[in-house]
Amino acid sequence: MSTKMTSSIRRYSDHFEPQDADPQEQRRLRGQLEQIDYAAYVANKEVIAQSLTGLDAASLQKLAVVTAQARAKWVAEALRLAHSGSPVTPDQAARLTAARTAYDELVEAYEALRRLVERGYVVLR
């Protein structure tokens, strides 16, 4: 199983890769897999393009700004806790976790949007 590192998250690819089949069987199987991949591409392009109408550079910039704000909030909260000199309470840890989770989700959304553009599922205006 191969892995792909995106940000701090590992994504596992469980795509089947034939190794010992004869060449003709491999070509047939790869042809079928290409048909499946193409069907997924068409479905993604149609569904995502309908859902994300009006996507432009300003939208990407807004996402970048809100992501930067979430990162700043997370780090500022961690620094505030460090400067307090007190042990971290469960409530404080929960707030820090919530701030990190918000940042992580926004980073993943950015990466997903970038992949959507890269793969041609959506076109920026």
Q: Structural class of the helices, strands and pairings?
A: mainly alpha
What overall geometry do the principal axes of the alpha carbons give? elongated
- Oligomerization state: single chain
In the predicted model, the low-confidence regions spanning at least 5 consecutive residues are: none
Could you give the count of β-strands? 2
Cα(first) to Cα(last) distance is 38 Å
What percentage of the residues does DSSP assign to strands (E)? 5-15%
| Count of alpha/pi helices | 3
Order the strands across the largest sheet as they lie in space. Answer: 1-2
- When the domains are counted, the total is 1
Helix share bin: 55-70%
Q: Main beta sheet: strand number and arrangement?
A: 2 strands, antiparallel
Tell me the radius of gyration: 21 Å
Integer average pLDDT: 89
| Helix and strand run | EEHHH
Could you please describe the fold and organization of this structure?
The longest helix has 29 residues, at 23-51. The chain has helices at 23-51, 57-84, 90-118, and strands spanning 2-6, 9-13. A hairpin with a 2-residue loop joins β1 (2-6) and β2. 69% of the residues lie in helices and 8% in strands. By secondary structure, the chain is mainly α. The chain is elongated, with a radius of gyration of 21 Å. The chain has a two-stranded antiparallel sheet. The model has no long low-confidence stretch (mean pLDDT 89). The protein has one domain (2-118). It is built from 3 helices and 2 strands.
